[in-house]
Amino acid sequence: MRLLSRVDVRALARRAATLRLRRRGGGTVTVPEAEGAGRERLRDLAALLCELGAELLRAGEQTAEVERVLNDVAARYGMRVRSFVVPTGLFVRVGGGPDGRGGELDFAPVDGPDLRLDQVEALQSLVERMRAEEVPFTEVSRALRDVRERPERFSPAATILGYVLLTVGLGSMRHATVPAVVGYAVLGAVVGLLRLFGERLPAARTALPVVAAILVTTVSLRWAGPLLHEAPTVLYVPPLIAFLPGAALTLGAIELATGAALSGLARLAGAANVLFLLALGILVGTELLRPRPPSGPGAGADPLGAWAPWAGVLLLGFGFLLYFSAPPRVTVWLLGALLTERLVQSVAAEFAGATFGAFAAGMLLPPMARWISRHSHTPDQVVFLPCFWLLVPGAVGLTSVSEIIVEGDTNGGLDSLVTTVITVAAIALGVLVGAGLQRRPRLSIGEPAPASTPTAPEPVAETPETPPGT
Question: Alpha-carbon distance 366 to 33, whole Å?
């Protein structure tokens, strides 16, 4: 038995805040502010938060969510933080007064490829741990390094197979005939092989969308008509699925709607640039070769039936699992989420039009991802990213841009472009409404303890620390 010192009282207060954070589904939990932090500790924490924020941005998180995570993690260390986050980098200031003056400032750019789904899961697990307890800096740095260096779960052959499944899945949702499915599979394998080699050459990443679009267009124009008896334009978009910026378009619209104008414009500009690069590749391929019309007895093949789009959703899910190295244990949850999104979108569109269908699917996404996370320990982003691709506003956007630039169909292209904008806005609004229906706990910094010894101290016996999760 002993009387608690000021350090003990502060430690117990932090532990009580942790337990309240775990038990409550929302609200704000106040954590006592750390006193006497040296400049070296402030610099280390600022650098650590910059590194963490950069990885979160590579995982596809919204800038507002990254700021919220940095605030919660800094509060867990008893520090105040102010951050400025955009998709290409972030500034973080740790320490100082409530007015933002003083402290230590650091900056980190966001470079490198996006994280795979297994990396996203490992990163989000680390974030949840850092929100719940004060993890040593060295341990966090080691965990972040392990996330970046985590090897792919599957072999190159399985990765290419995953890309083929992605291509066939998206194509089956848009236009499903036996010849078209064969074309999707062949072109998907070619582009998957191209991406496998291209992503290992950082200098080639910028030109990769153009090269892939030229390759897909020329092959489609040369052989789609004579061999598959399909219009070449049917085969353009599905093999380019990994380049389609559907998630960037939607996230950009969400950030514009929430007041993050700079981040939203940056994402939309990046997405528009990718669409124009793909359209440029299609234009170059069209100039190189002229389409050969479908001919022979197989012309005008019958569609596979109403089941084909649903089979496409399942193929899309398995493709995600292989191509983005998702943990096998999330298979059932991911497929269930994709089928549910497709069902809600289809039913809502049947009753009130395609725009309402996109809105309803977007509104369902946040609470469904949160429910799956709570029941399966699967991070929200592992569900969010594939579902964003399922709604495929990027595919519609590429179709509209290619119609304007390549085919000269200004009226039809503008109609498709307007449809893309409306669809993106509907999805973004739905996601905002769905996110507003749930509350998440927040950590905040309280005032430092007074100089005098706190009045409350009753004799407290020393007890072993309770293990996490108890």
Answer: 32
| DSSP character at residue 418 | H
**Cβ within 8 Å of residue 221, ≥6 positions away:** 232, 285, 286, 289, 290, 291, 292
Q: Give the rounded distance of the alpha carbon of 209 from its chain centre.
A: 20
Burial 189-219 (b: 16+ CB within 10 A, else e): bbbbebbeebeeeeeeeeebbbbbbbbbbbb
Rg, C-alpha atoms of the chain: 25
Dihedral sign, Cα of residue 452, residue 455, residue 458, residue 464 = negative
Rounded Cα distance, 88 and 57, in Å: 8
Token output for 405? 């630039």
φ, ψ (nearest 5 deg) of residue 457: -75, 115
Tokens of 279: 């359209």
Lowest mean pLDDT among 165-174, 175-184, 211-220, 435-444: 435-444
The count of residues in the chain is 470
**The tokens of 250 are what?**
């939607």
- Rounded Cα gap, residues 79 and 114, in angstroms: 29
> Pairing state of beta strands 441-445 and 27-31?
parallel
Query: Are 449 and 9 spatial neighbours (Cβ–Cβ below 8 Å)?
Result: yes
- Res. 141: pLDDT tops 60: yes
CB 284 within 8 A of CB 219: no
Task: Outline where 244-379 has alpha helix (H).
Answer: 246-257, 261-288, 308-323, 331-352, 354-376
Helix (H) or strand (E) holding 86: strand 81-86
Distance from C-alpha of 317 to C-alpha of 170, rounded to nearest angstrom: 10
Q: Which of 57-71, 294-308, 373-387 has the lowest mean pLDDT?
A: 294-308
Query: Most distant CA pair in the chain: distance in Å?
Result: 93
Torsion sign, CA atoms 64, 66, 69, 71: negative
Write out the H or E segment, with its range, that includes residue 93: strand 89-94
CA–chain centroid gap for 217, Å, is: 28
Tokens of 209: 């969308």
Rounded-to-integer distance, Cα 115 and Cα 99, Å: 35
pTM: 0.76
Helix (H) or strand (E) holding 188: helix 178-198
Query: Identity (one letter) of the amino acid at 221?
Result: L
